[in-house]
Amino acid sequence: MKISASIRVGLAMTAVWGTVASAADGAAAPDSVEVATRDGVLAGERGAVLAFRGIPFAAPPVGPLRWKPPQPVAGWSGVRPAIAFGPDAMQHTRRRPVSEDCLYLNVWTPTLQPSRPLPVMVWIHGGGFTDGAGSVPMFDGAGFAGRGVVLVTINYRLGLFGFLAHPGLTQESPDRVSGNYGLQDQIAALRWVQDNIARFGGDPDCVTVFGQSAGAYSVSLLLTSPWAEGLFHRAILQSPGSLRPLPTLAEAEQAGAALECDVERLRAMTAGEILELQARLMAAQEPALLQPRPLGPVHDGRIVPWPDEGVAATHGRLRAVDTVIGTCADEGVGFVKGWAIDDQKAYGEFLRRQFGPRVREVFAHYPVRRDREVKVALAAFHGDLHYLHGTRVMARALAGGEAQVFRYHFVRHWQGGEAAPTHGDEIAYVFGHLAQESQGPQGFAGDKTRDDELSEAMQAAWVRFATTGNPNGGGLPHWPSVGAEGDLYLEIGDAVRAAAGLRAEKVAFCGGLRRWRGPELSDASP
């Protein structure tokens, strides 16, 4: 199999990076700070806060451990430098070196010896389960640590490396399952936090898991998984895209078998060859709205015991923890931008393929009268179907227990410009990294004072929630909790106000479409 030049360069970078990152016996630098973890001593970086990067939380999933559950770290003697990020997981978007040896996490903490243990926040990155890393500069945890939080970011296996289900892999598994290796990596990282975070000043009994997009969707699945029980205590879901149908193990195995490679051949491939195989698989996918994603979590009956979070909630199997959950104003625009559906004819044909006898109803709710309206209608439909509907269902389900649930909708236009915030635009505000924000027309010289104020208020609210289970008490107006039958939320924009019934009619219609295409909740079982 021919490997592209970009992959060859990435793998060469990885080889160099691996040599640097594997050094575990170097002497500590004068400005370093040491922590003795259960696996060995780490030397981090001392600055405004303390930072420890590139900490292994599982053995490298390479060679015979490719497509295996994460295994324990081999301990080390001496002092292991922890000042550089480990390699990112294998992916096509290369911000940094990539490698199959990617199971590393990073910790920022204000102090190793606080007067009382500090709340812990663990960030799970998004990227559609094929992209992203805990090393992205936007996720630097110094801002959170400066507010008295121990902040952790993690990597997990992506794409075919993290989510391949295959009959051969299922056959060799003691549990007769395959896929979901990336989710198991996340669980392994949370177990590392339970075992080690007290050594960094954190409280293992006060852990908030938060993420955006695929990271938030992962959190929602972890709320249904018995394997994650007790590993975290609060959750923040930013644009989770919840309730997307999951393939069954049999369906995922069928997709894996369609690669026409047995397990022996797959294991003999280089990482670059597998990445090329993944690229061809993704390129062959056509736009779809209610079909399972080609690379992602699988309803395997073990790690993921339920078809989706809504079914788990119906059967009382969604752990009700205090939760913040929310969306952005224009969630769908980035997803449909590249779809080859640009005129009314193509729009109509697409909807007929997707919804058959329900197509007239879809047209009624998302009409177009001229070609230039097609992408706008598609984006609105995608956002309502995948994000607003799932967010409302999740909020109500969690609020139906003993948990407090706080919903938000982020509508601030970057620097007061014309473009509404899209999927992921709130991340820079939450992490306090507006200087890295690239939204809006380049060179737009608007007044960003309001952006700074909102960023300050949002990060403070996230920290208060992680500390107490309630985001109220700071610079934002009162944030009402969601009732089991209500639809209350906080709109965060030029003004910040409590509201209710966000796109209620559209969201209710999308819920009917999902029930029409999905399993009957009353008949679903793990």
Give me a quick take on this structure:
The protein is an alpha/beta fold and 526 residues long. Helix content is 34%, strand content 15%.
What does this entry look like structurally?
There is one protein chain. It is built from 17 helices and 13 strands. The protein has 526 residues and is of the alpha/beta class. It folds into two domains: 1-319, Alpha/Beta hydrolase fold, catalytic domain (Rossmann fold); 332-526, Alpha/Beta hydrolase fold, catalytic domain (Rossmann fold, 3-Layer(aba) Sandwich). Strands 1, 2, 3, 4, 5, 6, 7, 8, 9, 10, 11, 12 and 13 form a 13-stranded mixed beta sheet that branches. Strand 1 (32-36) and strand 2 form a beta hairpin. Helix 14 (374-399) crosses helix 17 (504-517). The protein starts with a helix and ends in a 9-residue tail after the last helix.
